[in-house]
Each structure stands twice: as C-alpha cells, then as structure tokens.
TrEMBL record:
Cited SUPFAM superfamilies: Diaminopimelate epimerase-like (SSF54506)
Site, Important for dimerization: residue positions: 268
Protein name: Diaminopimelate epimerase
Annotated NCBIfam families: DapF (TIGR00652)
Pfam family, one: DAP_epimerase
Enzyme class: isomerase
Positions that bind substrate: 11, 44, 64, 74-75, 157, 190, 208-209, 218-219
Keywords noted in UniProt: Amino-acid biosynthesis, Cytoplasm, Isomerase, Lysine biosynthesis
Subunit structure, as described in the record: Homodimer.
Signal peptide: none
PANTHER family attached to this UniProt entry: DIAMINOPIMELATE EPIMERASE, DIAMINOPIMELATE EPIMERASE, CHLOROPLASTIC
C-alpha cells in the first residue's frame, strides 16, 4: 500500500489515496501504522476516498493514532488539499470534501498556504457532545477535588478550552489526560490550554483525543479562537501560536464559519505491506 507522510506544523499524518488503491484498514492496522517504533508513525491517519455527495470531490476520513475514527482534523485538511493537488487528483481552485461532520472547502493560495472553511462551530451540548443540562458560556467539572472551568465547542469534533495564564506552565499532560476521558464528554474530547496574549494573538497547547499532546491542532486552534471571542477576549482575526508554529484563524461570530489558514508539508513517500 502506497502512503505519503505529511505534517501541518508538526502535527503529522500518514495520507493514503483510497481512490486509486483498495484500502480497508481495521483499528489494529491503524495503530500499527501510527506506531513510532514498530510502524511508520503519525498522530493521525487520513484516507482520501471517493465522495459521498454529488457536489463534493472527495470523502475525507480521519483516524487517531489510537485507531479510533473521528470526524474532523484541521491540520489534516490542509495536508489533504496539498496531497490531492500534488497527486493531480484534483486541479480545482476550491476542493469540496465530505466528512462525517459535514463538508469542508479547501483552497491553496498563491503563497502556498492552505485555506480551510472549517464550517460553523456548534455550542449545543448535544452537538458537542457534552453531558450538561443546558448551554452555558462556561462549564465546570471537578478533577481531583479541583473545579476546572472550560468553554465547550464542536468544530465537528469535541473541544474543551481552558484559559490559562501561561501555557508553558499549564498541566497539559496530567490534566489534559484526565479531562480527555472525563465522563462529562460521552465521546471524550480534545483539551485546549489557551493563553490570551492580546486581542489578536493567543498561545495554545492541545491534548488531543486519541493522540495525547500534539505539536499543533487545527480544529483546536479554531475552537480556542471561538471560545476567546465568545468570552469577549479576542477580535475576529487571531494569530494562534502553537508549539509547532502559527495558524491564522478568522471568525465573524455565531452562524459564520471558522476560516483557518496555514501550511501543509510533504515529508516523504512510502510503501508498506500489511
Ligand atoms: N484528535 C482529534 C482529531 C485530530 C484533530 C487535530 N489533529 C486537528 O488538526 O484538528 C479528535 O479526536 O477529534
């Protein structure tokens, strides 16, 4: 099976063309391919498939390194666009992809940066999903006797955003792991730790569902900007500084889509027998 190794700000992917080759992976095979010692190594594995909808060009499927299939991956969407363009699978200015959470629209600019319309964020607990009786601006859960405040939002995948004074000092590994699988999130969640630098700049670290802390999280960057704007802390155009680099996130408010712009890099091509 042919694959391409790519990354978006160090959030790395195995990308597989499942249009021109027959691909049928089970969770164990995904875990093997994602393993950084016994396999190829990646945070997520992405499949490029034939579309479901009449107006779409492809179906975009995403698997975390723990083998679980999920519905959204922002950095992966940029790599998806770069992949289909470089492989000459699609030469359209705008590429429409079906995902399990709706459609994304991808475009590659003259500067080589990739723009993604990440869709409209969802706040209803049932759509996140979140075990809460009603929609609140801030939720609280108790972890090890401490009350933790967070903003909850779905970008097609569940996110909890914590506002912290200093991301470098934030307990990303310990608290991120506990919150990721907290019972308040029936499908687990991605946990973002956001430091507001000013109204147009944040620092962010993300403990990802099914992958632990990554160098960058595209949907997490979108969720953090939405949370910051909802809390009145940010303007509509925000530079998000992640450990692996920076993304530009734009959001005009409820009912509007979140727009993400950033790089996508091909590292190497490979072939593996499963
Ligand atoms: N861990 C995420 C999927 C990958 C998201 C991230 N890599 C991104 O760039 O959005 C989840 O389980 O929802």
């Amino acid at each position: 099976m042919r694959f391409t190794k790519m990354h978006g700000l160090g959030n790395d992917f195995i990308v597989i063309d499942a249009v021109s080759q027959q691909v049928d992976l089970n969770a164990g095979q995904v875990r093997f391919l994602a393993d950084r010692h016994f396999g190829v190594g990646c945070d997520q594995l992405l499949l490029v498939e034939k579309p479901i909808s009449a107006n779409a060009d492809f179906k975009y499927r995403i698997f975390n390194s723990d083998g679980g299939e999920v519905s959204q991956c922002g950095n992966g969407a940029r790599c998806f666009a770069r992949f289909v363009r470089d492989k000459q699978l699609c030469d359209k200015e705008e590429i429409v992809v079906d995902t399990d959470a709706g459609q994304l629209v991808l475009g590659i600019g003259q500067d080589g940066m990739v723009r993604v319309n990440m869709g409209v964020p969802r706040h209803d607990p049932a759509q996140i999903p979140l075990n809460a009786p009603s929609q609140l601006p801030i939720y609280h859960v108790v972890v090890d006797g401490e009350s933790i405040a967070f903003v909850a939002v779905s970008m097609g995948n569940p996110h909890a955003v914590l506002i912290v004074d200093d991301v470098e000092q934030a307990p990303v590994a310990s608290l991120g792991r506990r919150l990721e699988s907290h019972e308040v999130f029936p499908q687990r969640a991605n946990i973002g730790f956001m430091q507001v630098v000013d109204r147009s700049r944040i620092k962010l670290r993300v403990y990802e569902r099914g992958a632990a802390e990554t160098l960058a999280c595209g949907s997490g960057a979108c969720a953090a900007v939405v949370a910051g704007i909802e809390q009145g802390l940010l303007d509509s155009k925000v530079n998000v500084c992640l450990p692996g680099g920076a993304l530009q996130i734009d959001w005009s408010g409820r009912g509007f889509p979140v727009l993400m712009t950033g790089p996508a890099v091909t590292v190497f091509e490979g072939w593996i027998r499963l």
